[in-house]
Design a protein that fits this description.
714 residues, alpha+beta, Jelly Rolls, ten-stranded antiparallel sheet, two-stranded antiparallel ribbon, 26 helices
Length: 714
């Protein structure tokens, strides 16, 4: 699901400046002095007493959100199922959908958790796939033309007469070579056997003489290449014959239609059963194997050691099912289902001996492992991370930093692109862009996919290439595919052989950085026109962490059409709209940022005019002028508010809570380490992972009393 739509007010992160403004304690002058006050406040915030431990914030029980649930079961089961797609949408706070305090639980969640557990366990216990697959559709279940039911020796056959046909649709799981056909026999009459035609997707594949008889029906088929997905198999009777005088009647009797394949492909390896049952009942006995299976799975699913008391409770479910007369597989599934339905799986629970102490203290090694994995992977810890926690190897800065570097190099760090950048930079919000079809006829779903692909591939380079995050705005290259190259008007672009994305330089063009990417520009526009206000608001909220206050009641927006004797540009309408001092106080900065992007229309295409009038993309903020998106990007890149906001955004994401007053000294320190690291994303991730707020917690009423062993206990 995409994040809050552009222009929708959200409880974004606030700076000390915002806090004081809201409380009304400072009347800020409308001069460049406004730009020095945030820096002064942050400097003062850094002057904490040396013996004051940073407050890590009150712990709030964290329910796995939809992305975290899907990723967790993927890594637990090795499945491609995404059951959380059917869960209720997650609520947003501070711009993200995994903020602990807003992740509520409903009765519907419980029902869907149970359905998901059943679905995952059915797949895990399903027999392994063996190629070639034999996909069968019984003739009586197909769509028949001129067919009547007939039976022979107790086996159900459909009798095709008068040159009838019968068809069924079969789902091909993997592209490849298949044999398509039907099992049939012919009722003999006349001087020739029954003839049958085979069609796949209405294309004639082959014709057959059906010489087999009722006592020995055979399969008739032909090889062909099929793609993944549904395919219709149809057979038709070609040579009906009937002699009423003698009672002779030639018919085609069809048992079933089939697809068999793929041919010549090794059977896929499946270790799903071993992930949930790592033992053999023949070797160690059913109950012992069940105990080992439940214990091993529960420790991985609950992300911590499991006590003997907890294990016996889970085994009692297995025993109850066995006592009721059911078999081992079903009984083990019910024990494992209890693991998946437990709060210890559905929530990231952190336990304490006392829920009342407000003294900051370190989280356990296993809890720190979970914090790291859900921060960087949006998923459960892997065996390496759990092994480090079990060995006590998440204690020193060097050990934690080493795990962070390992985890960022893992493919699962794509979660930072999907879930952090996806919400921070509005990659997900491209799904909500709705340009008017008549005004922008070239905008289609293929282009929407390309817009998201560019934004994701671009951000991924900051993980893979360890680039300075400032280049998010200043980079003069990006990634395009053939569809996006056409949209941008890039001449001479040669798509890669796989038809995907290629890195391109934008030298000599008006492209560069996130401010000029069509995905961001489209997601911050209206269906019929651009919106400098939305675009400026996005810059203030997402890049500068200085969200403007909501508009006062009764303020009306611009006319969508803007037509008249002399059509006005969007800029002219806005400037007239904000002549009211009540509006101007916020719009003067917000709209200035947006005016610089007016050369890019509502779907991100470069233009020279708006409604026939030349575009004016000049503006100034705090006396600093800029003309167009590239100059604006450089002005923002030179502003330390940008990199401070980057730290604040990732800090919010990592801790799944919004910054509080006590966080500002720590955020100031994190920014210093970020700057020392060349503003690289990896440096910022390490600084946050090593921070006291990430490695500690304090008591609060949401904490769960310890009822199971902490590491080192049995």
């Amino acid at each position: 699901m995409a994040g809050p739509g552009p222009g929708v007010e959200s409880s974004g992160p606030r700076t000390p400046l915002d806090t004081l403004r809201v409380r009304g304690k400072i009347d800020f002058p409308k001069t460049p002095m406004r730009r020095t006050l945030p820096l002064l406040l942050l400097a003062l915030a850094a002057c904490e007493a040396p013996d004051t431990a940073p407050d890590p914030g009150e712990f709030v029980l964290h329910r796995l959100n939809r992305a975290e649930y899907n990723n967790t079961v993927r890594d637990l089961f090795g499945t491609s199922l995404t059951p959380a797609d059917d869960f209720p949408a997650d609520d947003f706070g501070f711009g993200y959908d995994h903020i602990s305090a807003v992740l509520s639980l409903s009765p519907l969640h419980i029902e869907l958790y149970e359905r998901a557990a059943d679905q995952l366990l059915r797949e895990a216990f399903a027999p392994p796939v063996v190629y070639p697959l034999d996909l069968v559709a019984e003739a009586e279940d197909g769509l028949a033309s001129q067919a009547t039911a007939g039976f022979d020796f107790g086996a159900g056959f459909w009798s095709l007469n008068a040159q009838g046909s019968i068809a069924a649709t079969l789902e091909v799981p993997e592209a490849g070579t298949y044999v398509a056909g039907a099992r049939a026999y012919g009722q003999l009459a006349g001087d020739e056997p029954a003839r049958m035609a085979l069609y796949v997707d209405d294309v004639l594949v082959d014709r057959f003489e059906v010489t087999s008889v009722a006592s020995d029906a055979e399969r008739y088929g032909a090889e062909l290449t099929l793609g993944e997905g549904p395919h219709e198999v149809r057979v038709a009777f070609l040579n009906d014959y009937e002699a009423p005088a003698t009672g002779a009647d030639r018919n085609l009797m069809v048992d079933h239609l089939f697809l068999s394949g793929p041919l010549g492909v090794p059977s896929p390896e499946s270790d799903r059963r071993s992930r949930v049952q790592p033992c053999s009942t023949e070797e160690m006995g059913a109950r012992t194997c069940a105990a080992l299976s439940i214990h091993t799975f529960a420790e991985r699913a609950w992300r911590r050691p499991v006590s003997s008391t907890e294990l016996e409770a889970l085994l009692s479910i297995y025993d109850l099912v066995i006592d009721g007369g059911d078999g081992f597989d079903f009984a083990l599934q019910q024990g494992l289902k209890a693991v998946l339905m437990s709060p210890h799986f559905l929530f990231r629970i952190e336990r304490d001996e006392s829920t009342s102490s407000t003294e900051p203290h370190p989280v356990t090694q296993f809890e720190l492992a979970a914090r790291l994995s859900y921060f960087l992977w949006s998923s459960t810890p892997d065996d390496v991370l759990l092994g480090a926690a079990r060995a006590g190897d998440l204690s020193s800065d060097e050990q934690i930093a080493g795990q962070v570097r390992r985890m960022l190099a893992d493919a699962k760090s794509q979660a930072l692109v999907d879930n952090f950048a996806g919400q921070w930079l509005y990659i997900r919000a491209v799904d909500d862009a709705a340009p008017d079809g008549a005004t922008w006829p070239d905008f289609d779903e293929e282009l929407r996919t390309s817009l998201k692909g560019e934004m994701s591939a671009f951000f991924l380079t900051f993980l893979e290439e360890d680039r300075s995050m400032v280049e998010l705005l200043t980079a003069r290259e990006s990634f395009v595919d053939a569809r996006l190259a056409e949209h941008y008007g890039l001449e001479g672009f040669e798509p890669p052989a796989d038809g995907g994305f290629a890195r391109v330089a934008f030298s000599g063009s008006q492209r560069g950085g996130v401010l000029t990417q069509a995905g961001m520009l489209a997601s911050t526009s209206y269906p019929l026109r651009t919106s400098p206000t939305r675009r400026g608001k996005w810059i203030m909220e997402q890049l500068l962490c200085s969200a403007p206050p909501p508009p006062p009641p009764g303020v009306e927006g611009l006319e969508e059409g803007g037509e008249g004797p002399v059509p006005e540009t969007v800029r002219e309408q806005l400037e007239a709209h904000v002549s009211d001092p009540t509006c101007a106080s916020c719009h003067v900065r917000m709209d200035a940022y947006g005016f610089a992007l007016e050369h890019y229309d509502a779907v991100g295409v470069w233009r020279e005019d708006d409604r026939g009038q030349p575009i004016d993309a000049t503006a100034a903020v705090d006396g600093v002028p800029f003309d167009g998106g590239l100059e604006l990007a450089q002005v923002l890149a030179d502003d330390r508010s940008l990199t401070r906001c980057m730290g604040q955004q990732l800090y919010t994401y990592a801790l799944a809570r919004g910054p509080q007053t006590s966080d500002w000294p720590l955020l100031n320190r994190i920014h210093g380490e970020f700057e020392e690291g060349g503003f690289r994303l990896t440096a910022l991730v390490e600084a946050i992972a090593l921070s006291p707020a990430f490695r500690n917690r304090r008591g609060g009423q949401e904490l769960v009393e310890a009822d199971a062993p902490r590491e080192g206990e049995e």
